[in-house]
Amino acid sequence: MRRCKCFVPANDRAKRHGLIRAARRAFLAVWFVVVEMIGGGVSAAPAPSPTLAANEPTTICASHIVVHYWGARGASEVRTSSAALEIARQALVKAHEPGADFEAVGHEFEKKFADVIFERLGPFGRGTMEKAFENAAFALKPGEVSDSITSTPFGFHVIRRNPSVRCREILVAYSGASRATVIRAKDEARRQAETIRAEAAQPGADFAALARRYSDAPDKIRGGDVGVFDKGMMIGPFEKAAFALKVGETSPPIETRFGFHIIQRIE
């Protein structure tokens, strides 16, 4: 299935192409308007609030289903815009069914209709996307599917905001672990991770400073900041532990093939 290339900003395309391929990420750069489902009319996306909520994340992840039509950028299917809009409406209805899996719905429509593409997008922050799409995506709650269709020069889109977390980590590696450069026995690494975790769990502890001091991961220079990610982007045990944490909580040492991770959720 041909992937949609229309969402990488032109001035960043060459720079980001390899990273996006590797991480299955894509970035949107289009002129967006929202097609309201009631009456099939078109209206501008809602303007952002003058003041962002204190707890609004700075970066989110999302997925979308895009239906191309003839004349839209990158389209290969001879399909009218009204026919494309009808397919998008079908996808929207399907995605809102109780218990629906948005990714499964996306792949179903990819197989059922030519020139329909499902993609996972992000992470992306404010100012990265065109305002209309940005406003629509940030207005959704984690796990929520939009109740309207977004129209772009590339077709019609159904959008879902994916649940995501942002974490810091401290990695204690050992000899033989994947990508490890340290000379340390596994048992020693486990004991050291437990000691560091106890220090990190103390009231007022500076997790970022501890990461810079102790971590064997490259992200130590950022205070262990892993960034924002949604499900399927990280190695299984790490992801499971991160999503189980509440904001501000610190995990016990979590073992992966890279070593022992102490994780703190920050968003």
Describe this structure in words.
The protein has 267 residues and is α+β, with helices and mostly antiparallel strands. It has 2 domains: 10-162, Chitinase A, domain 3 (Roll); 165-265, Chitinase A, domain 3 (Roll), CATH 3.10.50. It is 29% helix and 23% strand. The protein has 7 helices and 10 strands. It has helices at 13-23, 81-95, 102-112, 131-139, 186-200, 207-214, 236-244, and strands spanning 33-35, 42-43, 59-67, 116-125, 149-152, 155-162, 164-172, 225-230, 254-256, 259-265. Strands 2-1-5-6-3-4 form a 6-stranded antiparallel sheet. It has a 4-stranded antiparallel sheet with strand order 8-7-10-9, with helices on both faces. The radius of gyration is 21 Å and the shape is elongated. The two termini are 34 Å apart.
Fold blueprint:
Layout lengths: L12 H11 L9 E3 L6 E2 L15 E9 L13 H15 L6 H11 L3 E10 L5 H9 L9 E4 L2 E8 L1 E9 L13 H15 L6 H8 L10 E6 L5 H9 L9 E3 L2 E7 L2
Antiparallel strand pairs: 1-2, 1-5, 3-4, 3-6, 5-6, 7-8, 7-10, 9-10
* Overall pLDDT confidence: 82
Category by helix and strand content = alpha+beta
Assign the CATH class of the largest domain: Alpha Beta
- CATH third-level topology of the largest domain: Chitinase A, domain 3
**Envelope shape:** elongated
Gyration radius (Cα, Å) is 21 Å
Topology, number of strands: 10
Indicate the low-confidence ranges by residue numbers: 5-53
Helix run count: 7
Amino- and carboxy-terminal Cα gap:
34 Å
Main beta sheet: 6 strands, antiparallel
Strand content: 15-25%
Return the domain count. 2
Instruction: Indicate the percent of residues in helices.
Output: 25-40%
Main sheet: which strands, in order across?
2-1-5-6-3-4
One letter per element, helices H and strands E, the order comes to HEEEHHEHEEEHHEHEE
Which second-level CATH architecture of the largest domain applies? Answer: Roll
